Amino acid sequence: MREDHGPGLRDTLRSGGWAICLLAVPLVVMEQLGREATSTLAPDIQAAFGVGDAVFVAAAGFTGVALTLGGLPMAWLAVRVNRKHLVVASAAVGTLSLVGAGLAQNMGQLFAAYACTGLAAAYSNPVFGSLIADAYPAGGRGRIFALHATATPIGQAVGPAFAGSVAALAGGGDAWRWAYLALAVPYALLTVAAAVLLKDPGRGAPDHRPGAAPVGVVRAFRLMTRVRTFLFMCLGIGVLGLALFTVPVQMSLLLGEEYGFDAFERGLLFSLVQLPVIAAMVAGGRQFDRSFRSRPERTVTVAGAAILGFGAITAGGIWLRPAPLLIACHLLASVCAGLALVSVSPLVAAVTSPRMRAQAFAILPVFTFLMGGFLGSVFAGFLSDAHGPRTAISAAVAFSALVGGVLFLRARGHVRGDAAAAAGEPPVPAHPPGPLRHRSGR
User: Which residue range or ranges hold the Major facilitator superfamily (MFS) profile domain (predicted)?
Assistant: First the structure.
C-alpha cells in the first residue's frame, strides 16, 4: 500500500494562496541581506570609524537585541490586528533603516540605524510564522516553512556577493555605504508589493478552529513552557545562538585579517557556501512532511544530530590552516546547521495551538538572543581581540552546539504527545502496542 505523504507543494500553495509565500521569502531575504552586508563589510566599517572587534560586534549584535525585544509587542499585535499592516509598516521602517546606515557619520548613528533594522525585522517570526501556519494545511506546511527558511541562506548567498560587488565597484574608504543604499531600493519595491498583494487569511483557518480568544504574551509564555517539546527547543536554540551569531562575523574577520580576503572575495565565498545549504533545506522540508506524519520523533532526532555535527565540524575545522580545508569544513558545518534549523518552525507550529502561534514564534528568538546571541557575541568579540577569531569561534561553537544538540534530543520523547494536544486529539504513544494476545490457560 502506498504511503500517504500529504499534499504536494503546488496543492499546498494553491490551498493557502501564493501571495504569502511569494512575499514572505523575498522580504526575509532583504532583512538577511542587510545583516550579511554588515558581516561582509565588517573590516571596512571598522576601519572607517576606527573601532575594535568588541565595539563593532556589540553594535552589530544589538540588531538582534532590537529584533528580539520588538518581537514580543509584534506578537501581541499579530493576534489583534490585520497582519498585513504589520508587514507593510515594518518593511517601510527597514527601508529607511538601510538608508540611515548608509548615511551614518559616526558609530552612534550607525548603532541607531542597526537598532532600527532589528526593530523592522521583529515582525518576521511572529507574523510570517503565524501567517504560514494559518494559511496552509498541516500536511504540507513543512514544505512552506522550508521555503520560508531558505530565505535566510538565500540572503546569505546573495548578500555577501552583492555587498562585496557594490563596495568593489564604488571604491574608496566609503564604498561600504553604497551597499546599504543599494539594498534600500528593492526593499522599498517589496514594501509596495506587500501593500497591494498581501492578505490576512484569518487565524486558525486550516485547523478549523477560528475565533479563539487572544492570549497575552506573558500568559502564552507560561502556557508554552508546559509544552516540553517547545521548552527544550527554546533552550537548545537559545544556547546555539552563541554559535549562530558568532561564526559569521568572526569568520569574516578571520578571512580578512589572516588570509587577506578583500570584501569581494569574502562575499563571493560566503555566497557559494550557501548554495548547498539551500538545497539541503529544501530537501529537509520535504522530508519533514513525510516523516512527521508517521514518526515525528525522527524529525527532532535529525535536528539534534545535525546540531552536534555542526559543532564538531566547526570546532575542529577552524584550526585547519590551509584555506581550502578551512572553507570546506565551514561549508559542511553550514549544511548541518541548515538541516537543523529547517525543522524548527514546523515543529513550533505543530505543538502550539492557533491562538498562541504568534507568541510562540516571538518567544523563540528571545531565547536565541538573550541566552546566547548578543551577550555571547560580545564575549566572543573580547575573546577575538585577545586571542584571535579562531579561539573565539572554537570556544563558542564547541560549548553551544554540544548543549544545544543534547537539549534538542531531549525533546524527541515529547513531540508526539505535544502535537496531539495542540491539535485537540488524544495523545498517541510513540510505539503503539501490538495486537492483544489471548493466553490459552495451558
Answer: 20-416
CB contact at 8 A, 413 and 430: yes
The 8-class DSSP code of residue 214 comes to P
- Are 314 and 401 in contact by the 8 Å Cβ rule? The answer is yes
Distance in angstroms (rounded) separating the CA atoms of residues 386 and 415: 43
Task: Cell 566547526: give the residue.
Answer: 314
Average of pLDDT values for 390-413?
88
Task: Fill in the DSSP letter of residue 368.
Answer: I
Digit-coded pLDDT (tens) for 179-219: 999 999 999 999 999 999 888 887 655 554 554 556 666 77
How far apart are alpha carbons 344 and 355 in whole angstroms?
A: 19
For 51, how many CA atoms within 13 A lie in the half-sphere containing its CB?
Answer: 21
Confidence of residue 155 (pLDDT cuts 50, 70, 90): confident
Q: Residues 247, 277: contact at Cβ < 8 Å?
A: no
Residue reference for cell 513550533: 348
The sign of the CA dihedral 344, 17, 135, 77 is positive
CA distance 168 to 196: 35
d(CA 436, CA 359): 43
Residue with cell 504574551: 217
Q: Could you tell me how far CA 234 lies from the centroid of its own chain?
A: 13
Could you identify the residue written with the cell 538565500?
154
**Does residue 374 register a pLDDT over 60?**
yes
pTM of the full structure: 0.72
C-alpha–C-alpha distance, residues 402 and 411, integer Å: 15
- Residue 193 CA to its chain's centroid (Å): 23
Q: Grid coordinates in use for 232?
A: 527544550
Q: Which three cell numbers stand for residue 185?
A: 531600493
User: Rounded distance, CA 169 to CA 151, Å?
Assistant: 26
Q: How many CB atoms lie within 10 A of CB 18?
A: 11
Phi-psi region of 433 (alpha: psi -120 to 50; beta: other; left: phi over 0): beta
CB atoms closer than 10 angstroms to residue 431: 8
Q: Which helix (H) or strand (E) holds 141?
A: helix 141-149
Residues 6+ apart with CB under 8 A from 123: 70, 71, 74, 78, 86, 87, 90
